[in-house]
Specification:
By secondary structure, this protein is mostly helical. The chain is about 70% helix and about 0% strand. The chain is globular, with a radius of gyration of 16 Å. The chain binds fe (ii) ion (2 copies).
Amino acid sequence: MTDANAILSSMTLSEKRFKHTLGVAEAARELASVHFPSLDLKSVELAALMHDFTKEYPVERHLELCSLFGIELSEEDIINHKLLHGKTAALIARDSFGLSDEICSAVYWHTTGRPAMSPFETVIYLADYIEEFRDDPSCIRLREYYKKCMEKERDKSVALLKTLVRSFDTTIKHLISEERTICETTISARNYYLKLLSERTKA
Ligand SMILES: [Fe+2]
Ligand SMILES: [Fe+2]
């Protein structure tokens, strides 16, 4: 199996994004240990290292990779190229590093999230948002919110669900404030986790 060093040695990220990537690896390991203790932490780390692997590629390279591998682009991908890096990083995770479907899927969905995320997908999605080096106010607020929920909620899965809902709300509000389109998967994910949270807290 590919090890972390193989990924690290082919990485071409800027210093800031490299630091962010290491932050995601750390946060993802922590989230996994608390919420999904049966997850293999080595695999969690590999998914974290891969998640933004192609983030700094020019748009043309993303499009070239998608066409080479027959990845269909959604309308949203065409409008918002930022969404492509999860897809192209997942392609490289599979084809160049031979990583498992579970890891590739976590890389693929890390930007938008989706309803009913797997444990792998959940920890990478959320770690990307709340890792300690992210310093924009919305990420800081979400990180603090998660910590507060973890202190307050006896059931830690409720703390996790609340933070997931808040993360989607934050993204959606931000996109609205910038008059940008919202990926439908993100809206579905928000509704899915809101419903799950209300069922869980009612029970
Ligand atoms: Fe990303
Ligand atoms: Fe990221």
